[in-house]
Design brief:
By secondary structure, the chain is of the alpha+beta class. It has a single domain, classed as C8orf32 fold. It has six helices and nine strands, in the order αβααβαβαββββββα.
Length: 210
């Protein structure tokens, strides 16, 4: 489980929710693709979660950045259908357990091959399955947020020409990033094997993930 200090100042979360300003939930255009939203801004390097670095040592192919791939994918009705199907299927098939229960440690990232996992494990498997379906890995980014309980949480962000969308084990609906109510801390870089800041929590006690 992602471990981020919980006594985060709630005003940042409130500001994000108030500032969302986009059409609610996963409304679709007549063509069957999601309504476009603004992309999220990223700035500067961020410290990678320790458990992610450990995962990459064990499975480097899951973490390499291929800069010949596009940063964003073109959203189509076919792609949207695939993303929705994979997100829902994995949310159903994985049994939620904490890392402490599963591995006996506070934070451990892995592919849930035994059918059990927590938030980052769901996201890693979704990325793997979608990459196998032909979506460029570079456009699918592991992302750390502060959730509605002011706790650390991991989701998968897909960057598209219609905005950035979030795949989450807490819900089957795939939402634009600014409709989730989350504070965005950092995500994988699209330019190197590393992470970039999303500006949501800059203090070390909040942004560090053990």
């Amino acid at each position: 489980m992602l471990s981020i200090h919980r006594n985060f100042i709630g005003s940042a979360l409130v500001a994000l929710i108030i500032g969302a300003g986009a059409t609610q939930v996963n409304a679709q255009s007549p063509a069957g693709v999601p309504v476009a939203s603004l992309p999220i801004s990223a700035s500067g390097e961020a410290r990678a979660p320790y458990a992610w670095s450990d995962f990459c040592k064990r499975m480097p192919s899951e973490c390499r950045v291929n800069t010949s791939e596009p940063e964003r994918v073109e959203m189509s009705a076919k792609l949207w259908k695939t993303v929705v199907a994979v997100n829902g299927k994995i949310n159903r098939e994985i049994e939620p357990v904490t890392d402490q229960e599963h591995w006996g440690v506070v934070d451990h990232w892995d592919l849930p091959d035994d059918g059990k996992g927590d938030c980052e494990d769901y996201a890693l498997l979704k990325r793997k399955r979608l990459a196998e379906a032909g979506i460029p890995r570079r456009a699918m980014l592991m992302t750390v947020v502060i959730d509605e309980e002011n706790a650390g949480h991991a989701v998968l962000m897909i960057r598209t020409d219609r905005g950035d969308f979030i795949l989450d084990n807490k819900r089957n609906a795939i939402l634009p990033w600014n409709q989730t109510g989350y504070v965005y801390v950092k995500r994988e870089s699209q330019y190197q094997t590393g992470w970039t800041s999303l500006g949501g929590a800059q203090t070390p006690t909040v942004a560090s993930v053990r």
